[in-house]
């Protein structure tokens, strides 16, 4: 990669030169890094023939950088520094990455990630060096400023004024470099995936291990239909009209399918609420920055995300995004944790690149209803909450009488945010295969470092040496998300598993109180009669 | 308007010239003229026509669609091919009726505060008819020439006929091109013409609207009342602040009992309306922009209420009326299927552009909300009684929730283009201290069906001409469409919270909703305040 070579070469040398202790003739030393660092600017592919003096003050931004890991600004304000990319900063622990280089490199390999760790570390070292040099120059500038406070010969003062001006010019240039390095570092480092739980099987999807298998495929004494045929005969869906009105992979639900969706949402919410989760309905349009912070890519050719024209808003692909954002940029009290939410939303996905995959009927659609669980907790507890989430899923699916297996997904199949992911695949007799109906991920601090969600440990758990009344330092929460019910996939399972010889479909007992006591979806018109 | 002058001038004359009966010999000359003249007519449409006519797609196909005047041009999936033509779809507007009822239409345009240009529409229409007639004439002439060439001919005579035929063909191509453009221009202008207005609708601005009915009276409170925003804050029901960060202003999360209340309202409303014979639906919330237009909404422009998706022709729906209206698009229903009554649940998305400064506190005006919407497709003779049925259902629903409300027959100046008549319901919101619109029921007669292409075929015995041959299909007619809010969830939540608030800060759930909320009868504060 061209960038890497560049960093390995000229600019590193430039810096070494700049770090040479400067005598009072620092003016000369600045002559050099100034011109050299300008070539460094060209890294960011924008020619920097900018009037440095007209720029907004850098000190504010530098402040954010020196504390490395801060959210730069609330997203509502980020519009103003549009020239800077990316517009938000993940609180990535670069020092940790450097100190655990081999583990991170192995993880990147295991996750099939295209993150460039070498480049990240080079940028990081470079940034640290520039940071150090900036500190040194500031010190020197202060020295000059102090000298000028006393009585001076006019000649001496003139010399100091000039020296101060040179120092200032040099600082501005270096601070500019620092900004760009920091942005470049962000951009590269954001590609690094979360670390992986030690028990996760290493390899591609076929290495995934089965954690649990419940039930067995239902035996049918008659030829089974798939949900599409059942839906047609029972007048439950309308795909053809939706193709005209909206496009392919859209649908209307009709008659009992509407009641079934409402019942599934209602039953799932009430079951999960019983377990101490706070119910939510969420915005379905969110700023694209929030989508990014949750670890999704709202842009690019193969994005799954619908973007609104003439705005920075996207349609959510999952309620995980708005629920993840609900505590964005805030510090929670330890006593508030864990926060457990169960959110109902519609989800929208372009399904770009999904052509050719199993897309029959309701299996892969552009819009669907979903009930999603989300937990924010202390780091020590995320693993046990992950177990809790998969257990809730299993309880729900078992009480609907499904045959399913729970899978510990292999490293190569994990998205960047997940530390570990359990999928549930249920038997769909009409489609004649298992299909994914839920996914439970522990994202540890991957999302919270991007969303800026911290908590302040209570006094007792902090270092006893610390003075009383002094606040404990904040830590990042861990986040977990898990599907409670993805409605269309669940409708597939219920229709295909509970179909009867006479063409009707039996409603599982737990859902009946939520569907007006309905026990069976019967054909509206007797067939062939 | 420049366009109008132009039409009134040169081009009309050009046509008159072209209509002079042509002798077989001099027809070449006659064509020389309209050809050049009609080229200037082409320039009307701001595209210079340096096109090789021979490499063009065949016009006959398109002309066919035009000759049948009022037919949907093509299914929307195919319109991509003819991207040069605007608009991409055609409303089956009855131009002859408009011409024959010019005064009534003009008065209606005025009463509706519409900026439709009726004069322009009629001028383009007459012009189009004239070009159409001329095209017919030239086709006949071309056929005559073709027939002459079938017999034995002197070589010089044949050569002459060939040349004549070629000239006729060139002339036809030009005129057919003009016809296409005139037809598009006519569509574009005519689509601005609003629906006619029910004779009982009060004429004038919103203040002329008439109260049809008033139910109940404002509840008396013996304590200082709160608005829904304060109640929601104290009962931990909403989160507007987080939504402002995550999504923008006027977005919100519902939380705790508000979630159950939303689902309870949807479920109760659906089941009540289903009891009355409506088929429940859940609809797509992304639809093609053409469907939005066909329902009478404007998906483009500065002040559009419609969110569009980047790099696609899809929009987010502002109401389920759009996807439900589209469900029978481009189809002919049998009379026995009518009326079709749907009750649809969807989320709705609105930009609320230009709504800054309007009453926007809390849940009243938001970018996204849940709504249950009723929609009826019926025979024209029955739309008025179905309109009454819809407003009656709304009133029954709101009464059984114990609301104080009034039903309003909206004045002509306040009707959207598709509505023939509109009844709004405004309910008392004690916290906001005013009445607020909670529903709207519109009879759109055939305004939407003429755009969406929804017809039905009357059954034989009733409406057909007895002279007609048995077994022959009766001609199709356009259905009438009606839409009405069954429950706009956030507005209903405002009503319930503000009307049923108690002195202790709790809110009572109306009886009918309780079975749909797990028996919950009261939303109580989570933490006792100041204790």
UniProtKB/TrEMBL annotation, chain B:
It is an enzyme of class 6 (ligase). Residues 227-510 form the Aminoacyl-transfer RNA synthetases class-II family profile domain. Gene3D superfamilies: Bira Bifunctional Protein, Domain 2 (3.30.930.10), Serine-tRNA synthetase, tRNA binding domain (1.10.287.40). Keywords: Aminoacyl-tRNA synthetase, ATP-binding, Ligase, Nucleotide-binding, Protein biosynthesis. InterPro entries: aa-tRNA-synt_IIb, aa-tRNA-synth_II, aa-tRNA-synth_II/BPL/LPL, Ser-tRNA-ligase_type_1, Ser-tRNA-synth_1_N, SerRS_1_N_sf, SerRS_core, tRNA-bd_arm. Transmembrane segments: none annotated. Its EC number is 6.1.1.11. Pfam families: Seryl_tRNA_N, tRNA-synt_2b. It comes from the Eukaryota. The keyword Ligase applies. PROSITE patterns: AA_TRNA_LIGASE_II. The keyword Magnesium does not apply. This is serine--tRNA ligase. It comes from Hevea brasiliensis. The lineage of its organism: Eukaryota, Viridiplantae, Streptophyta, Embryophyta, Tracheophyta.
């Amino acid at each position: 990669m061209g960038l890497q070579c560049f960093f390995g070469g000229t600019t590193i040398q430039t810096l070494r030169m700049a770090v040479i202790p400067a005598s009072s003739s620092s003016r000369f030393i600045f002559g050099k890094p100034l011109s050299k660092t300008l070539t460094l600017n060209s890294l960011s592919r924008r020619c920097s023939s900018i009037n440095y003096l007209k720029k907004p003050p850098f000190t504010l931004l530098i402040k954010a950088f020196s504390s490395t890991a801060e959210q730069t600004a609330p997203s509502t304000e980020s519009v103003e520094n549009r020239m800077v990319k990316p517009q938000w900063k993940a609180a990535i622990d670069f020092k940790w990455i450097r100190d655990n280089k081999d583990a991170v490199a192995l993880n990147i390999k295991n996750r099939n990630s295209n993150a460039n760790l070498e480049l990240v570390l080079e940028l990081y070292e470079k940034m640290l060096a520039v940071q150090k040099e900036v500190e040194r120059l500031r010190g020197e500038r202060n020295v000059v400023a102090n000298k000028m406070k006393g009585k001076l010969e006019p000649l001496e003062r003139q010399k100091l004024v000039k020296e101060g001006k040179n120092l200032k010019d040099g600082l501005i240039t270096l601070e500019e470099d620092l900004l760009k390095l920091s942005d470049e570092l962000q951009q590269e480092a954001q590609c690094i995936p979360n670390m992986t739980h030690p028990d996760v099987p290493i390899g591609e999807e076929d290495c995934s291990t089965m954690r649990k298998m419940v039930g067995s495929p239902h035996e049918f004494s008659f030829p089974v239909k798939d949900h599409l045929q059942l839906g047609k005969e029972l007048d439950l869906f309308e795909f053809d009209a939706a193709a005209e009105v909206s496009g392919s992979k859209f649908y209307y639900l009709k008659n009992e399918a509407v009641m079934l969706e409402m019942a599934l949402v209602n039953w799932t919410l009430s079951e999960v609420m019983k377990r101490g989760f706070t119910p939510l309905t969420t915005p379905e349009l969110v700023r694209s920055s929030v989508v990014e912070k949750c670890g999704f890519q709202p842009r690019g050719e193969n994005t799954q995300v619908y973007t609104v024209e003439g705005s920075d808003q996207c349609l959510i692909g999952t309620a995980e995004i708005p629920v993840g954002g609900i505590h964005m940029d805030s510090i929670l009290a330890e006593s508030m944790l864990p926060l457990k939410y169960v959110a109902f939303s519609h989800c929208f996905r372009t399904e770009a690149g999904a052509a050719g995959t199993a897309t029959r009927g309701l299996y892969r659609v552009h819009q669907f209803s979903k009930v999603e669980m989300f937990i924010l907790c202390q780091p020590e507890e995320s693993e046990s909450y992950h177990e809790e989430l998969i257990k809730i899923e299993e309880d729900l699916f078992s009480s609907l009488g499904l045959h399913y297996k729970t899978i510990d997904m292999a490293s190569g199949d994990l998205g960047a945010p997940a530390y570990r992911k359990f999928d549930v695949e249920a038997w769909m007799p009409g489609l004649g295969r298992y299909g994914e109906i839920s996914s439970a991920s522990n994202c540890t601090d991957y999302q919270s470092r991007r969303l800026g969600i911290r908590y302040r440990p209570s006094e007792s758990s902090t270092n006893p040496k610390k003075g009383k009344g002094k606040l404990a330092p904040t830590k990042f929460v861990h986040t977990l998300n898990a599907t409670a019910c993805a409605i269309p996939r669940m409708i597939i399972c219920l229709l295909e598993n509970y179909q009867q010889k006479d063409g009707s479909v039996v409603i599982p007992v737990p859902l009946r109180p939520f569907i007006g006591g309905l026990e069976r979806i019967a054909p509206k018109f007797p067939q062939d009669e």
